[in-house]
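Memo to structure team: turn this sequence into structure tokens by end of day. - J.P.
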Amino acid sequence: MAASIDGSGVRSTHAAVAVAARCGLATRGVLYVLVGLLALQVAFGATKEEADRSGALSELASHPYGRVLVWVIGIGLVAMALWRLSEAIFGAAGPDGRKLTKRGASAVRAVFYVVVAFSVLSFAAGKGGGRSSDEQSRDVTAQALGVPAGQWLVALAGIGIAIGGIVIIVAAARLTFREEMDIGHLPERVRQGVEALGVIGGIALGAVFTAAGGILVHAAVSYDPGKAKGLDDTLRSFAQTPAGPWLLVVVATGLLLFGVFSWALAAWQRV
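Reply from structure team:
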């Protein structure tokens, strides 16, 4: 009897974690689709909204029942944080899920999504949380530069973010995400479509992280927090290259596709 109860409890816990993971991934997809659409509008000069989380939330809240949807997104991000926390504590799915490196990465992600969820829920409650990523990045950089060895800390943070972006690009190009998805049973064209979304979306996301890290290093070297950029200004910087706004169009489309890929993960992620 005890074994039966224990087994039932494990199944119930696993089912709850699976629901949290799928809700969280679906929510992440919504945010990236919205940011991608805003970035496309920025590229064509069709919006004054920030192409970041705050801009996406503001755009969403401006529509009927939009505030309710913002609450839903906040709750979904809480679910995402709980899923990552469970991975940090118990290990992720897969043969290497209990490795210390993977559990550590899950712990970092859990903290990140706690912060993001708090920001979104604060915005939904009308208690702030609507500051742009650019403002937040400049403020945090200014505070970091003001502490002993702050210039080195900011530079190291920028290098870490840039390396993380490169890792994302390489992982996407190598299709390592297939190890975490149950898509072998899908029709070949559907599977190829999912893989294409993962590659293109992952490369675009990694490019944004790499650019953001490089910009932060530049802010540290010049000892100027005003040069630090959040997601919006990082995306706009792509339009200031010789390729002009078309590079931003490519990156924005990639972020949008990463959002769609997150929905595919919500359906077929191994949990």
